[in-house]
Amino acid sequence: MHKAIPSLLLSAAVLLLAGCQPQQPAADTDTPVPVVQDESSSAADALFTMDDVATHATEQDCYTVVNENVYDVTSFISRHPGGAAKIIALCGTDGTAAFTGKHGGMPNQERTLASMRIGTLRE
Ligand code: HEM
After folding, report:
1. pTM of the complete model beyond 0.85
2. Which domains, from first to last, does the chain contain?
């Protein structure tokens, strides 16, 4: 009898362990899976008139146009290495001449601008 105790204990342990398998949570089909909005195709295809752009002409809400593309540069005003005033001067206006005159052909500035594009200027 006492020889059987270790094997009994062992099989009891095995049974116990088999019974403790972590339960796989059931697939949660109720929680909606967030749809990642493809910003490059939807929001950035919005159309604006110059009148629309002119309504975003403050430091707190600043749109500008460069080469018929519309940009929301509000968050960039305080980060502009050339100073906030240069950007504020473009708010609500067509900033093509000012931007291309100062930064035309400069990859870093053009990339920075491109990252703020929100749409296209409509005739
Ligand atoms: C939305 C329009 C603009 C964007 C996105 C922009 C972006 C930038 C960036 C990214 C830099 C840093 C460049 C670097 O160090 O690699 C810069 C610097 C500078 N920007 Fe602008 N900029 C804009 C408009 C302007 C305008 C209209 C002026 C002046 C007429 C101007 C004058 C300057 C100056 C003086 C500097 C400092 C360094 C330098 O002389 O290049 N920026 N800008």
Report:
1. no
2. 40-104+116-121 (3.10.120.10)
